[in-house]
Amino acid sequence: MSYGDEMNARAKSAERRAEIVRAALEVIAERGYRGASLAAVAERVGLTQQGLLHYFPTKDALLVAVLEERDQWDAVPDSQWRIDLLASLVEYNAMRPAIIQTFSALLGESVTEGHPARDYFTARYARVRASMAGVLRAEYGDRLPNGLTPERTAPLLVAVMDGLQYQWLLDPESVDMPGAFRDFLALLGET
Question: Which Pfam families does this entry report, sorted A to Z (predicted)?
């Protein structure tokens, strides 16, 4: 196989993997992780289950790829996050309900013992809380106007963001996710 042929094959393999990850996102959003099957994902992309296993040897490997892909969409270096960017992220999330539904379904399922995404979400939340404490410290210093430290406020900030997503997914006509998040920022002292 020539170098050009090899590069072409790698590019096609990467495209196929990306197609499978997108299909897995859809299936997980519809059925949850436990209800999603490799067969359903394979069918969506026109493969047999064995064909899918060529790209992702286990369901857990596919789940990790889905989570990593989702994180890439929101990737901003920690040093560049600001309060106003968080509000923009909430607005952006309101435009992509399927992705938020998938993330929320996986997050909800991951609290059970033995779930393959449990370690991922545990580590992710530790990183996110630390990042949010940094954002709050950069904005307010060692104490917010409400008297709390950035470290004490960071879990509340993350909880509001995730909790609003669940409420919005359940009743998007009644929950203005971006507006409610801006209201929370006002409580922090951001106007």
Answer: TetR_C_6, TetR_N
